[in-house]
Specification:
- The structure holds two protein chains of two kinds.
- By secondary structure, chain A is an alpha/beta fold.
- Chain A is 28% helix and 19% strand.
- Chain A contains 29 helices and 32 strands.
- The longest helix of chain A has 18 residues.
- Chain A is globular, with a radius of gyration of 27 Å.
- By secondary structure, chain B is α+β, with helices and mostly antiparallel strands.
- Chain B has a single domain, classed as Alpha-Beta Plaits, CATH 3.30.70.20.
- Chain B contains seven helices and ten strands.
- In chain B, the strands form four sheets. In chain B, strands 8-1-10-9 form a four-stranded mixed sheet.
- In chain B, strand 2 and strand 3 form a beta hairpin.
- The longest helix of chain B is centred in the first third of the chain and has 10 residues.
- The chains are: A alpha/beta, B alpha+beta.
- The interface between A and B is large, with 63 and 50 residues.
């Protein structure tokens, strides 16, 4: 913190914003006479922060957040035992002692009876908001959760339907890419299917893409409406919603069937993919009978040999005779073959993609075949096959072409096809995990979360190890361990604690509370539900139904900034100190979500710029008190010592650990974390405490750029990317089908059909039309596709109550309204500003018409997530919301438990 | 001021930064970014254009001011003396860029009650007068003693420029051929709004590299 030369009563406090996963971003708070008045960049971090020390527009709302007149400033308890939207909770202020003792009594009672109930489900459930960012504000609460034990994280706040869900699962499976990004600083052509980097990528992405445009890099944006990212692109191609796989399949067709093979990266395909693996008649790899290793055909020896045989020249494409081999299928079913004809995986791919020509895709996507062909050709032309680049002394392939996917494209039906096609496009030209290409930036299903390169471990068949949820006869987790059943239904979600649960089909946890499908046990209700930085009563689908379900939960604790639609159902409200009032040290740099791959790594402090208002308390204090009152203090402190707050406090090299038996103050805890973190970062040269971080804000060290790329690590370990052929997924899907069918479960059959070794096109858009028919409706009565788009002002901010965001958001078209094609509007007699009603089969939402040219005539767009009825300021906006009208539906859920922000609707003018 | 339209993404970070820095009341935006569409479906462009007072060399607002409240500084920045302004709005009518804002009454973000920050920042002289972008001249004026350069050193650079996450906004001395903005303009194709009005606006828009 720095005293100002302007005025002795003014100081500047360095801190961070991590309201969205594209952070953390740096900022300073101007404080005058103890009042926070302004937000600005922290230029002291400009050289080490990819966003050049600047926060995005959301951070400027933190002043109003701090002083919001609707803030909850004391703990409160509900006095109306009836819960529901129509009920007044009659919250009454109580002391912290009463609030914490009430919660501790509930928790203590649970511990006395066991933290799992008779169904084996955790009695305590917790829900946190956007993408793990609440952990960047909840201080030491993760240590409390660790001390507690089994928790149910499956009641989502939008995960699966609002995140990049399938990209998380497939991205991590194929290239340790929980989030996928173009290597924007180096790419020359980015083909973006709805990725909205200019809105959700944070200052880092905005700055990098602006730099890319300045050096004449080209982005082609393919999506149904002219988003902000499309506006900042070289070209916008309006595509019919949910037909993106067809466009990508046609691109692959062009590359495989309209160009010589030499245009592809043959070395990459042979050495770094499964392309040369031989496939047997049952669709599984042909394996060496002795070792069960997949076979490839060595053209030197003219013989099939195990894939890892030294000195081979693999056959990439063709059909060969194999004298002796075995296939291993589901449940260890085996086929022994003698003198069999077999094709390579690549040859099967080529044949598979034959039918997916641009002419085939044109009518599906409503995009001319010539356009699709041109994009494919540009992709090939820019791929720079054979070129290399040296970065920090490491020579790597240089492939400056990338494909990125947006939400709704990479989740819900068709997401497998999109994620596969996107990754395959990179594989065909060797542009996966190399400079200029398509990269992953973080891992969450694999560990360690802090270093995705270290997560690369050799697994079976020459690929990276991926721990799928088991599907074997004995190993399948038949009885759900969480209320969504992620381990039971979604092998790819893994079993990596909270992340895997929250990646399971989190809407199913809500749905199964009221609608239990056949032959599945009805899940119990959690006895205690804790929610923080989340408002699922707004941010999920069929929000009225979600709120109704929430009202049935017996005891709900919400950490609360203002009243909102979720904490309307709470029994206890706890006011935590907000962004500018509290303390926490978090990691900065390295490779993080979205485009946050950095040349630096280190730590940044959130510190109180001003004192907490009212009775608001630092989350670390709350966590410590909860631990103490629940009898978990020792486990809580031990968890902190183990590193639950980011840095281990005790290692063989140094000991900053806390006495497990004693409660510690907020500053004592974070001082220890600061010292441990700085010791490790500086290799023992510094032991900076909390005071040092308060003065300096952050501490960084260089992070070598070659660590952005996974390719060198795979080459070093002689591993291949598990593409193009999905043998393991096919086997997994068939085993899962066996298990579910053995249990009498047939309601997941449509999802099970997705486990294809080479994805096939279905009429994905038609699934939404079929859903209308299933509901007894006629598709022609719901002629529009309603989709949504984010705005930087609101994205993940939990800031719908902030007036400043609304004011500046209104400068961006569509905010508070319904975007409709101007021609379509004219045909319907709709003029700008007319009040419209959007109707789906389940509900209606209303807002003013915003006719524009930049949207397909069959598509409507609603910006953000609104329709609030309890949140101050937001409830008076009159803004529409897709969430209100989108149904929660098993039929609209794909095999990974993911849904897409998409709904068929009717529109009518209700007032001028 | 120079805005590189190739870089701007209309995020309104500059708008928000300006509002905080200058404590403008709700609805008063000295700086904002226009969201403009052109063409017909499917051949459509959408462009983001930052706007504010253009600090014209020959400002139309100056001549119509009956009290002399509007004045132009030696460095070209056009200011309003709130103690002299009577809020007659002649300037608002005269400004072809619609960048004069008459603050009619004290207003707050959340109804009748000011927040602590609003209370602290309230400037009674800003009510019932014309207001507009000052190019953060109070910051710029700090450049005189410690040899800092506006547009280069953040301490003496307008808040909007500092805040711009896309690096689209630039500030500097257009009369110095070696300044950052002069160099940017020398190497780019650019325009100013309503050149035909001969107001000599001090706000330039870059559209592409120089041919």
């Amino acid at each position: 913190m720095t005293e100002s030369a302007e005025s002795p009563g003014t100081r500047y406090v360095a801190t961070y914003c991590y309201n969205c996963v594209a952070g953390p971003d740096l900022l300073t708070v101007k404080v005058t006479d103890g009042v926070a008045t302004e937000i600005g960049p922290n230029f002291a971090g400009a050289d080490v922060h990819p966003g050049k020390g600047k926060p995005c527009v959301k951070a400027y709302g933190l002043i109003e957040k701090t002083y919001h007149p609707g803030r909850i400033l004391t703990p409160m308890k509900r006095t109306n035992p009836l819960k529901g939207r129509a009920q007044d909770p009659q919250f009454t202020p109580i002391s912290w002692d009463e609030a914490l003792d009430t919660i501790a009594a509930k928790l203590g009672d649970i511990r006395s009876r066991g933290i799992l109930d008779a169904e084996g489900l955790p009695r305590v459930a917790v829900t946190f908001g956007h993408g793990g960012t609440p952990a960047m504000y909840m201080g030491t609460f993760p240590a409390f959760l660790a001390a507690w034990g089994d928790l149910d994280y499956s009641f989502g706040s939008g995960q699966g339907v609002k995140c990049m869900h399938s990209e998380h699962l497939f991205g991590e499976y194929w290239h340790r890419a929980f989030t996928v990004s173009a290597d924007t600083p180096h790419t020359r052509l980015n083909v973006s299917f709805g990725a909205n980097n200019e809105v959700t990528g944070g200052p880092c992405a905005v700055a990098r893409h602006a730099d890319a445009r300045a050096r004449a890099a080209k982005r082609i944006q393919i999506e149904p409406h002219l988003s902000i990212t499309a506006a900042a692109s070289a070209e916008w191609i309006p595509i019919k919603p949910k037909t993106d796989p067809a466009f990508m399949f046609a691109m692959i067709h062009v590359m495989l069937h309209e160009h010589p093979r030499e245009r592809l990266d043959l070395a990459f395909l042979n050495e770094s993919s499964s392309s040369p693996y031989l496939v047997g008649p049952s669709g599984y790899y042909l394996r060496d009978p002795a070792t069960l290793k997949p076979l490839i055909y060595d053209t030197r020896r003219a013989a099939a040999v195990p894939f890892d045989t030294e000195g081979v020249e693999p056959l990439l494409e063709g059909s060969v005779r194999v004298p002796d081999a075995v296939e291993v299928g589901a449940d260890d079913e085996r086929w022994a073959h003698a003198d069999i004809n077999a094709s390579t995986a690549f040859a099967l791919l080529v044949a598979h993609m034959q039918k997916y020509s641009p002419e085939w895709a044109a009518s599906i996507c409503d995009v001319p075949a010539a356009t699709i062909r041109r994009v494919a050709n540009e992709f090939l032309d820019q791929a720079c096959i054979g070129q290399t680049i040296e970065i920090d002394g490491v020579t790597m392939p240089f492939r400056p072409v990338s494909v990125t996917l947006g939400k709704t494209v990479n989740n819900g039906w068709g997401a497998y096809e999109c994620c596969w096609a996107r990754t395959l496009l990179a594989v065909l030209v060797g542009a996966l995990e190399v400079p200029g290409g398509t990269l992953g930036t973080t891992v969450r299903i694999n560990r360690p979360h802090t270093d995705r390169l270290q997560s690369v471990v050799a697994g079976a068949d020459g690929f990276m190890q991926n721990t799928l949820n088991p599907t074997g006869r004995e190993s399948w987790v038949k009885t759900p361990t969480g209320r969504n059943g992620h381990r039971t239904l979604v092998p790819l979600s893994g079993d990596s604690g909270a992340w895997s649960q929250a990646l399971g089909p989190t809407h199913l946890a809500w749905m199964f509370q009221t609608h239990v499908p056949e032959n599945r046990p009805k899940p119990t209700k959690p006895e205690v539900w804790i929610a923080y930085r989340t408002n699922p009563a707004i941010s999920f689908w069929d929000t009225h139904a979600i709120a109704d379900t929430m009202a049935t939960l017996p005891f709900t604790v919400c950490f609360a900034f203002t009243p909102d639609e979720t904490n309307h159902m709470a029994d206890i409200l706890l006011p935590d100190a907000t962004d500018l009032e509290s303390t926490q040290l978090i990691r900065l740099g390295k490779t993080k979500y979205v485009e946050q791959f950095s040349h630096h790594q280190g730590w940044v402090l959130r510190q109180p710029a001003v004192a907490p208002r009212g009775e608001a308390r630092d989350f670390t204090w709350i966590a410590t008190e909860l631990a103490r009152r629940t009898g978990l203090l020792e486990g809580y402190n031990t968890a902190i010592n183990r590193g639950a707050c980011g840095a281990k406090l005790k290692t063989p090299q140094r000991d900053f650990s806390l006495d497990p038996a004693q409660p510690h103050s907020v500053d004592e805890i974070w001082d220890a974390v600061c010292r441990a973190a700085s010791f490790d970062l500086t290799r023992g040269e510094a032991k900076h405490g909390l005071d040092w971080f308060k003065e300096n804000g952050l501490l960084t060290a260089p992070f070598a750029q070659p660590n952005w790329y996974l390719y060198p690590t795979l080459r070093r370990q002689k591993l291949r990317f598990e593409l193009p052929y999905q043998e393991r997924l096919m086997r997994t899907g068939r085993e899962l089908a066996h298990r579910l069918h053995e249990s009498g479960i047939r309601w997941w059959d449509q999802q099970l059909r997705e486990y294809q070794p080479l994805p096939v096109w279905h009429d994905f858009a038609g699934i939404w039309e079929q859903d209308l028919v299933r509901r007894g409706k006629r598709p022609e009565d719901f002629p529009f596709w309603l989709i949504t788009t984010k705005s930087m002002q609101y994205h993940a901010g939990g800031n719908a109550a902030i007036a400043l965001m609304d004011e500046v958001g209104r400068n961006v078209r569509g905010h508070r309204g319904i975007i409709i094609n101007a021609g379509a509007a004219a045909r319907l007699g709709i003029k700008a500003g007319d009040q419209l009603e959007i109707a789906s089969p389940i509900a209606t939402t209303r807002g003013p018409a915003v006719p524009v040219q930049g949207i397909r005539p069959d598509t409507l767009v609603i910006v953000g997530q609104f329709d609030h009825w309890a949140t101050p300021y937001a409830k008076d906006l009159g803004a529409p919301s897709l969430n209100t009208v989108a149904p929660l539906s098993l039929e609209l859920t794909d095999e990974n438990g993911s849904g897409a922000d998409l709904v068929r609707v009717a529109v009518r003018r209700i007032a001028s | 001021m120079v805005a590189d339209l190739r870089r701007c993404v209309g995020c309104q970070t500059c708008t928000a930064a300006c509002k905080l820095t200058n404590a403008t009341p709700p609805g008063i935006q000295w700086r904002r970014v226009l969201d403009i569409e052109s063409g017909e479906y499917p051949d459509v462009r959408r462009t983001f254009v930052p706007v504010s007072c253009m600090h014209c060399g020959d400002p139309p607002c100056l001549g119509v001011c009956p009290t002399g409240a509007t004045f132009k500084r030696d460095d070209g920045i056009v200011r309003i003396d709130p103690d002299v302004c009577i809020g007659c709005a002649y300037c608002a009518v005269a400004c072809p860029y619609q960048q004069r804002h008459i603050v009619k009454r004290r207003e707050f973000a959340y109804g009748a009650q000011a927040t602590a920050a609003e209370d602290l920042r309230f400037e009674p002289r800003s009510v019932a007068v014309s207001t507009k972008c000052t190019f953060c001249s109070d910051r710029v004026d700090h450049a005189a003693s410690p040899r800092l350069t506006p547009g280069i050193d953040p301490e003496v650079t307008p808040a909007c420029v500092n805040s711009c996450i896309a690096g689209a906004l630039h500030f500097g001395d257009r009369d110095d051929p070696d300044s950052n903005v002069s160099q940017l303009l020398a190497h780019s194709a650019h325009f100013r709004m309503h050149e035909e009005l001969n107001t000599d606006p001090g706000f330039y828009y870059i559209v592409e590299d120089a041919p």
